[in-house]
Here is the input.
Amino acid sequence: MPMTALLPIGLALSLSTAAGSPLEPARGAVAPTTPAASRTGGEQAREERDVAALLSGRCRQWAAAPDNPWALAHGMVLDGRDFRTRDGRPAAEAIIAGFLRQAPWLAGSTRPPPHGEGSAQVRLTPGTGAAVEKPPRADDAPPPLVTTGAAPGRLYFEPRTADGTPVEPHPALQVKTLLRAGYRLSHRFDAAWGPVTVRALVEQVQRDHRPALTTSPEGAWALDALSLAHQPGDTFRDGTGARVFVDAVMREALATLEAAQADLAEGMRAGRPEVPKRKQGIYAHPCGGLHYFQAVAGWARHASVRKAWRARLDTQVEVLLYRLDSEGRQYEAALASLPEAYRLPLLVQMLKFQGHLLETLGRYRDDTGWRPTPVQRKTVERARTALEDTVRRLDAAGAFDELSAIAAQQPQLALDLVGDTCHAAHGEALWRVPPLSAPGAPAPRR
Here is the structure.
């Protein structure tokens, strides 16, 4: 399969925004990249593969590399605590033992902001909806943290290894993965220097917290970790000593989500067939903001939050469902206009969107008890159909059999294919009856 340079997807979509037909391919339909008359026997055999089995099988195969902690975390997206490395170790144990780092802890210091972001702290007072108040006086009550003593230094994961392998490119990605897989706060792992509990890792996420991260596209995983580790009413101290109110953090995150999806919400209300993707709002987030949606909506696992947020979340779910056709039209128009050489990156982008969409809706259902209306359920099924069609296109192009060749010429595209295959496998599994794998676990018991 010929490999080519990656055409910027945003450019392709901005040049191809004319409304097309709704994205409603027949279930099981194949859209090969080679004319039927000239397809080889191998290509025809690939078309017959079961899509769910192909996604889950490739995820488990590709993500099991013990020297790639980011990939291992994506295997855990599908199989949780059961996912193992190729050499038989639980993936979580391999991640902690091989890649968790410890640095001397200096009083009042925090982990350096990732990716060059600023670290200015905003000081606001409680009672105004603010997430942070000023540091306590000496006679204030101590912060509600349990110090384990197991980790005397600052705990962190490097964004990447020296050879460029991703470890934690987004803050708290690994901790969020452990919590979502169901590891209790008391669970002990063996780090390179000794035992470390999940609680100690969560405490580090708390110390690393800063107000700017709540509204940042990079904050999704840290928000998810805080949400999974806390309950309404909880507070903690960040690394500067400021008291952080978890409820206020999550309220601010919900407002951020609403603002980020405002263009889509307006297009939905106006009945427009699509809202062009121009890296605005939610489209400035990694993975189209779907991790951010998961983090915010997951807080509604608590009954009091569901009651307070119900109408607002109902709107955000409708916007998410609207995105299926809004984005789908643009992807299909771009596919029709792009040269053959640029189809693979766009198909991987489609896999990312459709898989994350199904995962996000499935997780929202399992976290909150959401029951789709008949119309909403039909949209979910159309998303599954769209995903199946995308997978068959990728398979016909040889993507699922030629990962090493892709990695040799387009390393980032190969990483995207690995991660997005795992998210797509999980998204499909959440809506499959019976499920292909267990949904993510609820918040760990303390």
Remarks:
- The chain has two domains: 9-65+251-431, 83-249.
- Confidence is low (pLDDT under 50) at residues 1-39, 106-129, 135-151, 435-446.
- The longest helix spans residues 303-337.
